[in-house]
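[step 3/7] inverse_fold.run input=structure_tokens len=268
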């Protein structure tokens, strides 16, 4: 048997249904739209609750799984970086080999290709050893070149190897000049000390010489060892020395002497 509150509720619902059925069709339509609007926030709340539940499920992914994925991504990143580095090294090597192959064709000299096989441990920035020697026609005081410019001269010759002193070594002075003004001087090791072998001094320039940063320095041809016109480097800056008797310029070498692996020896 229905309790009184339930009976009253059932009676109210029944009367509401009868009243709704008795209304005109247009009025019933507006009532339904109004009732639907009352329930739309409930539907939106349900959708939000579902989305929150999905995010909560993702957040509950085990830490071990996430750590494993992170390690996989880090490994992939390392592999990609290694592959990129290898590609860049191979590209630079190919460019270098193309320069080496084309260099003799651009010069009228008789050149002999050589590979750097060693360096003096105590002065690696001042001398290298090559894999050619007397049997290949190498003599002392021959100029050693690279596509970028001057490397040095042959100091000692063995049967199958030779030792080369590099530009900047005290035993490798070079008669040089400013390419645009032809003011000449002598290239020697940097007075301030440069253990990387990248900077030398161009000394004994005339006190009236016009010296500017960026000027190209070339061999002058004086002295008989180095042909004229070989690039030595470019001027960094200059100063007056010996109470203004002459000008001395710092020069950045054109050849990376620390990184050379193949060179050319100018044969007689």
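[step 3/7] decode complete -> sequence:
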């Amino acid at each position: 048997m229905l309790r009184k509150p339930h009976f009253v509720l059932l009676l109210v619902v029944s009367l509401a249904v009868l009243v709704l059925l008795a209304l005109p069709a247009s009025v019933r339509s507006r009532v339904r739209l109004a009732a639907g609007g009352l329930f739309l926030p409930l539907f939106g709340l349900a959708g939000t609750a579902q989305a929150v539940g999905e995010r909560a499920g993702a957040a509950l992914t085990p830490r071990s799984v996430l750590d494993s994925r992170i390690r996989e991504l880090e490994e992939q990143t390392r592999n990609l970086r290694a592959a990129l580095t290898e590609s860049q090294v191979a590209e630079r090597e190919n460019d270098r080999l193309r320069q080496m192959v084309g260099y003799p064709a651009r010069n009228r000299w008789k050149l002999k290709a050589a590979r750097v096989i060693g360096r003096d441990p105590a002065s690696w920035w001042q001398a290298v050893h090559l894999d050619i020697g007397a049997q290949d026609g190498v003599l002392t005081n021959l100029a050693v070149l690279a596509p970028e410019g001057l490397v040095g001269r042959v100091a000692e010759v063995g049967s199958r190897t030779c030792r080369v002193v590099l530009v900047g070594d005290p035993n490798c002075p070079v008669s040089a000049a400013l390419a645009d003004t032809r003011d000449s001087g002598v290239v020697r090791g940097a007075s301030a000390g440069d253990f990387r072998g990248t900077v030398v001094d161009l000394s004994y320039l005339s006190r009236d010489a016009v010296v500017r940063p960026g000027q190209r320095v070339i061999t002058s041809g004086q002295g008989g060892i180095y042909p004229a016109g070989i690039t030595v480097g470019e001027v960094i800056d200059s100063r007056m020395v010996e109470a203004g008797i002459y000008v001395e310029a710092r020069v950045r070498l054109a050849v990376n002497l620390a990184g050379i692996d193949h060179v050319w020896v100018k044969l007689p």
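[step 4/7] annotate
The CA atoms of residues 12 and 261 lie 101 Å apart.
The radius of gyration is 42 Å.
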